[in-house]
């Protein structure tokens, strides 16, 4: 089995990297996404990172088609938009919101698996302090669930290094 290494990938998202407003929310944003992929390919990039908050199979399938057409690989799937746009996190005091966060992340793990991509856990882990034992327990439970899904799908999880100004949990000081 050969192991193909990707050399360069670039982020396409609503807020960072190559920015597309309302990414994957409007037909026009898909046109812009396809243009972005063409531009990345033309400039020597081999892959793309997508920061997603989707769990819609139809939209994910459209992303699959666009990636295949562009001949770019999906390098990584970020989860920060789940927090930034949907306010979902693993340390939310509401168990229903924590469960929804885990459900969406596990869906993204399965999407990443189809592309042999890494899944990045960023702000979805929460911004709350670890002074509260309940936050630690909630984070541990959510991460354990996601890790089990990722292991079953052969997906690597990366914990994003985030500074102390953005989160009080698992930060880089």
3D architecture notes:
- There is one protein chain.
- With 173 residues, the chain is of the alpha/beta class.
- It has a single domain (9-159), classed as Divalent-metal-dependent TIM barrel enzymes (TIM Barrel, Alpha-Beta Barrel).
- Helix content is 44%, strand content 14%.
- The chain has 5 helices and 6 strands; from the N terminus they run ββαβαβααβαβ.
- It has a 6-stranded parallel sheet, covered by helices on one side.
- Strand 3 (47-51), helix 2 (57-70) and strand 4 form a beta-alpha-beta unit.
- The longest helix is centred in the C-terminal third of the chain and has 21 residues, at 133-153.
Tell me the series of helices and strands, N- to C-terminal.
EEHEHEHHEHE
Number of domains: 1
Under CATH, the homologous superfamily reads: Divalent-metal-dependent TIM barrel enzymes
Percent helix? 40-55%
CATH third-level topology = TIM Barrel
Strand content: 5-15%
Discrete helix count: 5
Identify low-pLDDT runs: none
Q: What is the CATH-assigned architecture?
A: Alpha-Beta Barrel
CA-based gyration radius: 16 Å
- Overall CATH class: Alpha Beta
Shape: elongated
Structural class by helix and strand composition: alpha/beta
Major β-sheet profile: 6 strands, parallel
């Amino acid at each position: 089995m050969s192991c193909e290494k990707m050399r360069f990938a670039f982020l396409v998202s609503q807020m960072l990297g190559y920015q597309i407003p309302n990414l994957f929310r409007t037909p026009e944003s898909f046109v812009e996404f396809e243009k972005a992929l063409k531009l990345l390919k033309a400039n020597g990039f081999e892959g793309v990172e997508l920061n997603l908050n989707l769990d819609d199979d139809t939209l994910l399938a459209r992303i699959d088609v666009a990636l295949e057409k562009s001949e770019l690989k999906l390098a990584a799937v970020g989860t920060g938009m789940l927090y930034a746009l949907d306010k979902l996190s693993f340390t939310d005091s509401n168990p229903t919101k924590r469960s929804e966060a885990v459900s969406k992340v596990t869906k993204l793990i399965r999407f990443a698996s189809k592309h042999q991509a890494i899944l990045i856990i960023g702000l979805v882990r929460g911004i709350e302090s670890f002074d509260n034992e309940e936050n630690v327990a909630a984070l541990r439970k959510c991460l354990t669930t996601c890790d089990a899904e990722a292991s079953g799908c052969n997906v690597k999880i990366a914990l994003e290094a985030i500074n102390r100004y953005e989160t009080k949990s698992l930060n880089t000081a």
